[in-house]
Amino acid sequence: MRIDLILKERRTLSFEVFPPKQEHDEDLSGIRGTLAALTAESPDFVSVTYGAGGHNRPRALEIAEIVLSLKMTPLSHLTAVGYTKEDTERVTHTLADLGVENLLALRGDVPADMKFPQDPWIDFRYALDLVNFLRASGTPGFCLGGAAYPEKHAESDAPERDVEVMLNKERAGVSFFITQLFFDNEIFFRFRDRCRSVGVQSPIIVGIMPIFRARQIRRIVEISSCSVPEQLEVILARYADDPASMEDAGADYAASQIAELWRRGVDGVHLYTMNKSRQVLDIVARSGLRKKRLR
Ligand code: FAD
Fold it and tell me: For residue 106, which atom of ligand 1 is closest to its CA?
């Protein structure tokens, strides 16, 4: 089903998974089990990440197929970096043939360990170029989503620039956004106000990263340079050497973040699952979202 149509009917709960490395899950039985477990929450869609430059393309496509076989709606991420228009047409036709109707149109980043035979920005410089191409070319009429950054994209000169970029994507045909992770809800609410004040009208789904381990969060914070509120700093320091308590406190943190966001009217909640179904289902249960979604 198209996500723009789902969002017209209701606020969404969705999950993100990533293609596991070959050596960790050769026949994809692990991720199949994860996805089967996640069906328990009847997610509105499941997104599948895409390695910049397409290095994990076959597995990303297989996982989208698994999502479909489990009667869930896939959202396939698609990155532009390193791709020509011809590469993009090939992938999008394959996805359409599988039955995928939704794409998250992304620019991507040049991976530090990857060499491209040509200029990686040969046909697309920004995600907007990809969106324009997908809309103008013969590729089938996907429902398109885009990325959003409540705390500013790393290369952006100002938060206003990111919001302007969102407005341009929306005008080009993006019909919903999913945010980068954040740990401070007030930052998101200020961002949402900024978006609405410049005229961005599309639903903005919040991306929530559960805290599983202190090291994982420190790394993510370094990469995304997102703010860490005092309350989270305390948890990270207190349970750094106690993984079970860290998981428990992290689950509570994510659950209360989600509960407040839902209460204050977000268009949807998207959980970055890190392919961990048990912990993610526990967080959804603690947030009280199941009952709220049934109302
Ligand atoms: P863009 O929208 O092109 O923005 C990139 C930068 O360029 C921003 O700083 C923006 O302000 C600036 N910019 C845009 N247009 C212009 C313009 N016309 N003039 C000047 N500056 C401009 N990466 C992956 O490799 N695989 C994934 O599966 C993946 N999934 C993601 C999912 C979500 C929800 C998010 C938030 C990010 C994801 N990423 C993924 C990371 C993403 O690829 C990077 O953050 C990347 O650096 C930017 O992608 P974008 O689509 O936001 O790019």
Answer: 51
